[in-house]
Amino acid sequence: MAVTIGQYVVAVLTGIDGYDGRGDGRYRFHGTLAGSVTELVTPQQWVNPDAPGADRARLLLGRRLESESGGPAAYVRPGG
């Protein structure tokens, strides 16, 4: 799952096996951080080479994607 801020992918979570809802539209996901962006101005990536989906994380990090959930920090469903 790609996590976006302002429609830019800043993290990729893999191996998501469930989530907890708080009843207010917020969720906590359980998974593995495959990679993240440490700087948006000049995107610098950190990728966990041992995480499932590391190659996909390299492709997505720093890219612009249309988010599917509201708010400044959002997510993009896999395959989206």
How would you describe what is shown here?
- The protein is mostly beta strands and 80 residues long.
- The chain contains 1 helix and 5 strands.
- It is 9% helix and 49% strand.
- A 5-stranded antiparallel β-sheet has the order 4-3-2-1-5, covered by helices on one side.
- It is globular and about 35 Å long.
Summarize the structure in short.
By secondary structure, the protein is mostly beta strands. It has one helix at residues 54-60, and strands at 2-5, 8-21, 27-39, 44-47, 73-76. A hairpin with a 2-residue loop joins strand 1 and strand 2 (8-21).
Low-pLDDT segments, ≥5 res? none
* DSSP, total strands: 5
Instruction: Return the string of H and E elements.
Output: EEEEHE
Compute the CA-based radius of gyration. Answer: 12 Å
Bulk shape? globular
Q: Please give the largest β-sheet.
A: 5 strands, antiparallel
Neighbour order of strands in the largest sheet: 4-3-2-1-5
Itemize the secondary structure elements and their pairings.
Elements: E1 2-5, E2 8-21, E3 27-39, E4 44-47, H1 54-60, E5 73-76
Antiparallel strand pairs: 1-2, 1-5, 2-3, 3-4
Keywords:
80 residues; mainly beta; 5-stranded antiparallel β-sheet
